[in-house]
Amino acid sequence: MGVFQFQVRLQGTTGLPKDVYENVLFYDVNLPDTVQGTCDSLKAKYIAANFLGGVNAVEVRAYELTGGQPVAASGPSAKSAVAVTWPHEVAICLSYATVDDVSQSTKRRRGRIYMGPLGGSMPPSDQLRPTATYRNTILDFGTGLASVGTAGNTTWKLFSRADQVAVKIESMWVDDSWDTQRRRGLSPTTRTTRDVQ
Questions:
Q1: Burial level of 171, CB count in 10 A (0-12/13-18/19+)?
Q2: Nearest Cα residue to 113 out of 4, 33, 10, 15
Q3: Could you give the number of structural domains in the chain?
Q4: Does 35 map to a domain?
């Protein structure tokens, strides 16, 4: 079958198209696994992620690397409501590389997924840094992403558009700092003004 791009779409609680948060993953899918089955499995992992807040539904679409219309899709399916404990812009980054020793990786062989909005099992917003517990929560989720499909038939890959190659991901990590995804911020709904005398 080959390598496909999987677009994970997380619908924010507003229900507006502009409040859809996306993660893009690549998998080399081979029989007896299917592209449809990979979509379904990815969706199930995101629905079960109890650290995601402010997400009403999850949908996964699969595309050929050349683009075009989706070749398979799963959802959108409802996700149990989880309260947001951080501003929508705050994310925690799951980074990955195609080598075991991260210090030996190059920019073209590293990638990242910005997980968020955050809620549920994530700490309250006065936590200055992600603790080891929460970093391991994200790493556990990454392990789940790596185990999608049947062992040996479906493999999580990094796709380099510059080199046009897909390479197996060998390591992943989470730093003890939060990231910011400004495009995920909510639009203002009101304004408080005051005259200056």
A1: middle
A2: 10
A3: 1
A4: yes
